[in-house]
C-alpha cells in the first residue's frame, strides 16, 4: 500500500476506474475522427475539395505534436537524470532566480554531485501542456484567419457577376480609346508619389489599410489575367479560380516546416530575462506582416506604372501584364511562406502566454508588468485580424498575377477527369506493348489498340498523353485539327468550354509531378 502523501499506482486503482477513463478517451478520439469524416463529406458536397488536403494536414500536425508529447512522457526520467554543471543551470533563466525547494529524486542525485538536472520531471510535464496549447492555438488561429479572409472576399462574387453586364462590356470595349491616367485604375495609382521610388513605399504602406483590394483593382487584374492566358475575354469565373487557389494555399498555411520549428526554438531561447524579449519579440510578426502587405500593394502600383510607361493611350481599359519580376526574387510563393511563418509565430506567442498564465498565474515572472500583458495580447490579436482581413485577400488576388497560371484554373471535376483519362491511356499503352509482339504481320493495322486516346477540352484542344498530369499540375497541347485526316466536324462553342484557352503561359512547374490517382469516377466541364 502507498503511504500517505504518495500517489496511487495502477496496482492500487480499481479496474472500473481505469476502464471508465479509457472508455471516455476512446470515445473522444472516435468523435473527433467522425467529425473529420463529416467535414470531408461537407467539402465534397460544397465542391471545396482543395480544402480536404488541408484538413488532413491539420490532422498530421496534431499527430506529430501528440507523438512529441508521448516522447516527453517516455523520456521524462532519462532526461531528468542528465546532470549539468550548476553554473550552466543558472544562466539564461526566464525569471532571473532559482527556486531549489521541493527537489525530485533525480534532482537530489545531481545535487549530491554538485550539479543540477538538465530538465526536471515537472518541467517535462509542463512542456507537454505547452505543446497541447500550441497545437490548439495553431489550428484555431489558422481557421479563424482563413475564415476572416473568405468573409471579406464574399463581395468579390458581386464584382464577378458585374463583368457579365452590358455596362462592363461597354467600359472595356477595345474600340473606346482613352488616356491611361483617365481610367479608374489610373486615377487610383498614377499619382505623383507613386511615380517616386522613395515616396511609393510609404504610400503603399498606408494604401493596404485604406481601400485594400478595391473593385477597380479586382476588375483590372482580372482583365489582365484573362487577356494574358486566354485568347479573348470570356465567361471565365475569376473569383472561383481565386477561391480554389486559396483553398489549396490553406494547406500550406496550416503546415509546420523545419525552419518554422527552428525559429520557434529561438523564441523559447530568447525568452530569457536578460534579453527583455517581451519588449521586442511580439512586434516581429506584426512588422513582417506589414512588410508583406506593403509589397503586395506595391505590386499593383508597379503593374499600373509599367502599363502606363508602355502606352499612354489604352483601348477600353488599362491592360496589366502578369509577370514574376514584380515579386521578390521572382517567386510569388515566397509571400505564402512568409505568411505561414507569421501565423505560426504569432500563434506560438499567444499559446505561450496562455500556458504561462495557466501554469504559473497571471502575474508570474513571465509577465510581471501590465505593459507586458497588454503588448502580448494586443499584438497577437492585431496580427491575426490584419492577416485575415487585409493581407490574405490581397495575397489571394495579387499572387495570381505571376507569369504562369496555376492548376486551380481547372475545376476539381475536370482535373479528376483528366486523371482518369491519363490512367486509362497508360493502361491501353501497356496492353498495346504486350499484344504487339504476338501479332502476325498480316493482321489489319486498324485492329491495333489505340495508344493515344484523346480527352477533348474544347473544339480544338486536347491533352498530351505523354505529359505528366497530377493533382497540382496539368499539361495541355494544342492540336491542329486541319492536319488530321480523320478530322471530325467542328462543334459550336459551348458555355464553359476552353475555346480560346492560351496554353503558352501554363506554369512550367506543372511538369514536375506526375503520379495521378486512377480511381476518380466523375467528370464534368467547367
UniProtKB/TrEMBL annotation:
Please give the chief subcellular localization of this protein. membrane
Q: Which domain of life is it from?
A: Eukaryota
Localization, UniProt: Membrane
Q: Where is this region: Disordered?
A: 481-526
Q: Where, by residue number, does the polypeptide cross the bilayer?
A: 16-40, 61-80, 127-148, 250-270, 276-293, 334-353, 373-398
Alphabetically sorted, this entry's keywords are: Calmodulin-binding, Membrane, Pathogenesis-related protein, Plant defense, Transmembrane, Transmembrane helix
- Similarity comment text for this entry: Belongs to the MLO family.
Domain remarks in the Swiss-Prot or TrEMBL record: The C-terminus contains a calmodulin-binding domain, which binds calmodulin in a calcium-dependent fashion.
> Would you tell me the protein name for this molecule?
MLO-like protein
Q: Which gene encodes it?
A: LOC105108582
Amino acid at each position: 500500500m502507498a503511504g500517505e502523501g504518495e500517489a496511487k499506482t495502477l496496482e492500487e486503482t480499481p479496474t472500473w476506474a481505469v476502464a471508465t477513463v479509457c472508455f471516455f478517451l476512446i470515445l473522444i478520439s472516435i468523435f473527433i475522427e467522425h467529425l473529420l469524416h463529416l467535414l470531408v463529406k461537407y467539402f465534397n458536397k460544397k465542391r471545396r475539395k482543395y480544402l480536404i488536403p488541408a484538413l488532413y494536414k491539420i490532422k498530421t500536425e496534431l499527430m506529430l505534436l501528440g507523438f512529441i508529447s508521448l516522447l516527453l512522457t517516455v523520456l521524462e526520467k532519462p532526461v531528468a537524470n542528465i546532470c549539468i554543471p550548476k553554473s550552466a543551470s543558472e544562466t539564461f533563466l526566464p525569471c532571473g532566480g532559482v527556486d531549489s525547494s521541493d527537489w525530485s529524486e533525480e534532482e537530489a542525485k545531481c545535487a549530491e554531485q554538485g550539479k543540477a538536472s538538465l530538465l526536471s520531471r515537472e518541467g517535462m510535464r509542463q512542456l507537454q501542456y505547452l505543446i497541447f496549447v500550441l497545437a490548439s492555438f495553431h489550428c484555431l488561429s489558422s481557421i479563424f484567419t482563413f475564415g476572416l479572409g473568405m468573409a471579406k472576399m464574399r463581395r468579390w462574387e458581386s464584382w464577378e457577376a458585374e463583368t457579365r453586364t452590358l455596362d462592363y462590356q461597354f467600359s472595356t470595349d477595345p474600340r473606346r480609346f482613352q488616356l491611361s491616367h483617365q481610367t479608374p485604375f489610373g486615377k487610383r495609382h498614377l499619382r505623383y508619389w507613386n511615380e517616386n521610388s522613395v515616396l511609393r513605399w510609404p504610400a503603399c504602406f498606408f494604401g493596404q489599410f485604406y481601400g485594400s483590394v478595391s473593385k477597380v483593382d479586382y476588375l483590372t487584374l482580372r482583365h489582365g489575367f484573362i487577356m494574358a492566358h486566354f485568347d479573348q475575354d470570356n465567361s471565365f469565373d475569376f473569383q472561383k479560380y481565386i477561391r480554389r487557389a486559396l483553398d489549396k494555399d490553406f494547406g500550406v498555411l496550416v503546415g509546420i516546416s523545419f525552419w518554422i520549428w527552428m525559429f520557434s526554438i529561438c523564441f523559447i531561447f530568447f525568452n530569457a530575462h536578460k534579453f527583455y524579449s517581451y519588449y521586442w519579440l511580439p512586434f516581429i510578426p506584426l512588422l513582417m506582416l506589414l512588410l508583406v502587405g506593403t509589397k503586395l500593394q506595391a505590386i499593383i502600383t508597379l503593374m499600373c506604372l509599367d502599363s502606363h510607361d508602355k502606352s499612354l493611350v489604352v483601348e477600353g481599359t488599362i491592360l496589366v501584364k502578369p509577370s514574376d519580376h514584380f515579386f521578390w526574387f521572382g517567386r510569388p510563393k515566397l509571400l505564402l511562406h512568409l505568411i505561414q511563418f507569421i501565423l505560426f509565430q504569432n500563434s506560438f506567442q499567444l499559446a505561450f502566454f496562455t500556458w504561462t498564465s495557466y501554469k504559473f498565474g497571471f502575474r508570474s515572472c513571465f509577465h510581471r508588468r501590465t505593459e507586458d500583458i497588454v503588448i502580448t495580447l494586443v499584438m497577437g490579436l492585431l496580427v491575426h485580424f490584419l492577416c485575415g482581413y487585409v493581407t490574405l485577400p490581397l495575397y489571394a488576388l495579387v499572387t495570381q498575377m505571376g507569369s504562369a497560371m496555376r492548376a486551380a484554373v481547372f475545376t476539381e471535376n475536370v482535373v479528376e477527369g483528366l486523371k482518369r483519362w491519363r490512367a486509362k491511356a497508360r493502361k491501353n499503352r501497356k496492353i498495346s506493348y504486350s499484344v504487339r509482339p504476338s501479332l502476325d504481320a498480316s493482321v489489319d493495322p486498324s485492329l491495333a489498340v489505340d495508344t493515344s486516346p484523346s480527352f477533348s477540352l474544347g473544339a480544338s484542344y486536347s491533352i498530351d498523353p505523354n505529359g505528366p498530369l497530377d493533382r497540382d499540375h496539368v499539361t495541355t497541347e494544342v492540336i491542329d485539327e486541319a492536319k488530321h485526316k480523320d478530322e471530325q466536324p467542328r462543334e459550336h462553342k459551348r458555355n464553359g468550354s476552353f475555346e480560346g484557352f492560351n496554353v503558352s503561359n501554363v506554369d512550367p512547374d506543372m511538369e514536375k509531378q506526375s503520379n495521378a490517382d486512377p480511381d476518380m469516377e466523375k467528370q464534368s466541364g467547367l
